[in-house]
Write a structure and sequence with these properties.
This protein has 6 helices and 14 strands. By secondary structure, it is mainly beta. It has a single domain, classed as Porin, CATH 2.40.160.
Length: 349
Amino acid sequence: MRKQLNIFLILLCSSMLNAQTGGLGVYNFLNLPASARTAAMGGKLYSIYDHNDPSLAITNPALLEPKMHQGIAFQFVDYFSDAAYGHINYIHDFKKTGTFNFAFQFMSYGKCDGYDEMGNETGSFTAGDFALITGYGKELIDSTLYMGVNLKWIFSAYETYFSTGLAADVSATYYNSEKNICLTLLATNIGSQIKTYAGIREKMPFDLQLGLSQRLKHAPFRYNITLHHLYTWDFSYTDLTDPFAERDIESGSIKQKTNVRKFADNLFRHVIVGIEILPIKYFSLQFAYNYNTRQEMKAYARKGAVGFSYGVSLHLFNFNLQYARAHNNLASTPNYITLSTNITNFLKK
């Protein structure tokens, strides 16, 4: 029973940092946005064909292609309290083999105070999650259809508890250059724990997503629609402690939603909508709304901007700088910063 309570609380918090759809599975840090641009567009799959943004390949390996050769990206996020996470990835094209992405992802929860089951102090300890990612992408049909796969070696350490796992992402992307349409189907975190924390095997944070984006031909806008959790229809819940819920006068129980309202609620929980404004070549603005995040993380008395996210991207001197904020709850709004470039640009000079 040594320090079981503290470890349980860490596991619970880490699984619910991003949203309650994380459930009680393991390695939910894998679902955190891989770049500021992705965070600004709702935090899930951003289906866009852009070889100038190497950070997109972390989420969608089907985007890997020779034009991304020697692209590199760094991301850092000051998350909640002492928690912080980030990514670094490098893309290399091997002429005879194909295009690969090598990435490292980390999640640090900072220093925690330890106590035993009697409440006695046992000293401080650290907790963190890490993943080594290798991605491979291949063009199947000339400049139209692409496939990709990520392999993830996962390591997690909470005080004296240690776990390892292996997972894979598989994606397929269709791109129509004439209509500027990009469509992606992505299955994430297919795998299993290899070593469990305490002998209990837990679920991986699997998700099935479909993303569609299109840049309008005669306007400086690109819209994006992402559908997530396609493998299940109903992942809503009823909070029995909700003081604002409509209740039956006689029984006091919460009234069930009508079939139409329930259908609409479940439908929009799967949908993230976003728009990217591109007024000039080297500058863009992003805005998105995640209905499910708003429903799960809003406060009863004040909803605020929960569920909304926004960001800006700027290209300067061969560097791409991205900044975003995502209102995941009222308590804190993380700042996302991503810096990327292509080493080839400097070698040419």
